[in-house]
Amino acid sequence: MTTVVKWTGSGMAFDAIASTGHQVRMDAAPDVGGANTGPRPMEMVLMGLGGCTGIDVVMMLQKMDQNVHDVQIEIQSERADEIPKVFTKIHVHFKVIGTALNAKKVQRAVDLSAEKYCSVSKMLEKSAQMSHDFEIIEA
Prior knowledge:
By secondary structure, this protein is α+β, with helices and mostly antiparallel strands. It folds into two domains: 30 residues, no CATH class; 98 residues, GMP Synthetase, Chain A, domain 3 (2-Layer Sandwich). Helix content is 32%, strand content 36%. The strands form two sheets. The protein has a three-stranded antiparallel beta sheet, with no helix packed on it. Strands 4-5-6 form a three-stranded mixed beta sheet, covered by helices on one side. The longest helix is centred in the middle third of the chain and has 23 residues. The protein starts with a strand and ends with a strand. This is Osmotically inducible protein C.
């Protein structure tokens, strides 16, 4: 896997291009020379966590024959006060929307993603206290 990150030549904006050809812009806040044209790099880390664990949970629930209509992942984090300002706490909250969902199966999918399958989660747990929970919303 290869990613190229290239400065746009303006302010603090950088374009990241993945080996798959997908592209995303990152930028800094205006108070440090950015123009707010994209998410901050640390926000991208949390977005990656959400995408990684979300894919796991949806795949597992589908394999468990659960009638999932939507999954929303809300991530709250805290960072260290000193540089490097790494994440120290991350809480992942899943909203699983569907019909007649089995709570034990949802719990199992969330736990397996956090404890075994989500590579991003496993990396972040080296520096941050990770926690997760879920709620089921009947569609």
